[in-house]
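Lay summary. Proteins are chains of building blocks that fold into shapes, and those shapes determine what they do. In this project we predict the shape from the chain. Here is one chain we studied, written as its sequence of building blocks.
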Amino acid sequence: MGVSDRREREFQRREEDILKASFDLFAENGIESVTIDMIAERAEVGKGTIYKHFIGKNDIFASLVILQGYELMDALNSLDKTVPIISQIKIMIRTFWEVHTHDMKKFKIRRRCDQLLVLEELSPPVLAKYTKLNDMKKEFAQALFQQAIDEEIFMDVDVDNLLIASLGLYTGMLDVTLEEDVQPSEELYLLLKNMIFKGFMH
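And here is the predicted shape, written in a compact code that computers can read:
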């Protein structure tokens, strides 16, 4: 391994340490009250080191959201493309649900990060990652929904409208569970799935 490779690995390790420290502090103290100084102290790095990786808390918010997004995409990309499209969509919805609800503490923090971040203030590299990830998630769902429309399983409407409606149901339901401090249940998941399918079926 060359010197440049070792430096890159060390840079990546420090970035992971900073994100872990940020997440832990957000969980302990609330996102808004955590400062860059606190993150640097927890990560055991200088404040200047934080700024070599992130231009501020906004970049950290986005990076934590991106981490969960990659976890979701890894799960979605393992979806069996040989099963009927209706089964693929059901598996997709279940995958979204399980990735987000298996650790509600983590989801709560990352959801709050997503709500607080300001896209216009992200550094170009982080904005590029954030945008690419969102595009990947949208394109994945869009392809499945369009196939369901083409096979006359879903109603013949603009696929983007189906995506907006399903995302609204999904995020709205999870946001209410966070606000009410309710643990998402299997019954709640089944209600969501049935609302999507009964509302979209041809």
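What the prediction tells us: The chain has two domains: 1-53, 56-200.
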